[in-house]
Amino acid sequence: MTSKSKTLPALAENHWKPGFNAAAWKRRGKGLVLPVLALLLLEFVVRIGWVPSYQLPAPSEIFLTLRDLADGPLWSHIGVSLLRVFSGFAIGASLALLAAAWVGLSREAEAYLEPTFAGLRAIPSLAWVPLLLLWLGIDETSKVVLIAIGAFFPVYLNGVAAIRNIDRKLVEVGQMYGFSSARLARRILLPAALPGLFTGLRSGMSLAWMFLVAAELIAATKGLGYLLTDGRETSRPDIVLAAIIVLALLGKLCDGLLAKLEQHFLDWRDAFTGNGGER
After folding, report:
1. How high is the pLDDT of residue 21?
2. Rounded to an integer, what distance in angstroms lies between the CA atom of residue 76 and that of residue 64?
3. What is the predicted pLDDT for the residue at 45?
4. What mean pLDDT is predicted for residues 209-213?
5. What is the reported pLDDT for 58?
6. Which of 60, 91, 123, 207 is most deeply packed, by most CB within 10 A?
7. Where do the domains of the chain lie?
8. Using an 8 Å Cβ cutoff, are 114 and 103 in contact?
């Protein structure tokens, strides 16, 4: 039997129906092991009294709270927070990509912009809040701007690094073949920089969620950050933890969507996926 024929049963087993990927589902199952074990451990230590339930409710109680919130205001809070995050991320990431392209391709632009950007990105998120409230008030604009600031810097930093790490020989080959600037950017610079750009976008999305909570904790009447504040003020740790769980799930979902886009646009790479990894 040839080596080719030996692989046919394995292919048939892993792809017994369209769209099924046994390795991917197995990998997802492994990712659930740690959260499930943590939930079981927390349930155990709370139920036997090692941790008081008024400080840390059992996971089963938190899920009951989530169910009650889902029948009430939870979805409106989620909708408001998602709109703020996506708006701020879109603005911040777009401006960051433009700035990264300018600075990455021009040493002159780097000399003018990089010192200022280096100082601005060292400012903590909460330090922006009082200034934005004074300038823009407590409406949606201040929250979206704060989220845009959070998303800007990781996208900018990774974008500049991605452009500067492009192999110089690739650019020289394009110039040798007479590529115009637009064609050089489209055919060489952009594909070579995409891995770093996606890393920046995923980091920017994570920070967008963090800056969202900073904005909603201080000046909001709706949103998941407001839900956190409401749980704290009413001494309801179950509401606080329920809001944290929803934030974690939404952050993971957004990161997963960007990861899928990254996989789609970078499918041409023959990259190392780790020992035992499968493409």
Report:
1. 66
2. 18
3. 87
4. 91
5. 86
6. 207
7. 75-265
8. yes
Amino acid sitting at position 197: L
Percent of the chain with pLDDT over 70: 88
75-265: CATH class: mainly alpha
Q: Angle, to 10 degrees, between the axis of helix 59-70 and the axis of helix 22-47? A: 110
Q: Is the CB of residue 93 less than 8 Å from the CB of residue 157?
A: no
Q: How far apart are CA 13 and CA 5, in angstroms?
A: 14
b/e per residue, 183-200, with b = 16+ CB within 10 A? Answer: ebbeebbbbbbbbbbbbb
Bigger pLDDT: 72 vs 161: 161
Q: What value does the mean pLDDT of the chain take?
A: 84
The stretch 251-272 carries a mean pLDDT of 86
Q: What would the DSSP string read from start to end of the chain?
A: --HHHHHHHHHHHHTSSTT--HHHHHHHHHHHHHHHHHHHHHHHHHHTTSS-TTTS--HHHHHHHHHHHHTTTHHHHHHHHHHHHHHHHHHHHHHHHHHHHHHHH-HHHHHHHHHHHHHHTTS-HHHHHHHHHHHH-SSHHHHHHHHHHHHHHHHHHHHHHHHHTS-HHHHHHHHHTT--HHHHIIIIIHHHHHHHHHHHHHHHHHHHHHHHHHHHHHS-SSSHHHHHHHHHHTT-HHHHHHHHHHHHHHHHHHHHHHHHHHHHHTTT------TT---
Could you tell me the pTM of the whole model? 0.83
Q: How far apart are CA 11 and CA 278, in angstroms?
A: 14
pLDDT at 36 over 90: no
* pLDDT over threshold 90, residue 75: yes
Q: Which pLDDT value is given to residue 90?
A: 96
**CA–CA dist 190, 74 (Å, integer):** 40
Distance separating alpha carbons of residues 86 and 90, to the nearest angstrom? 6
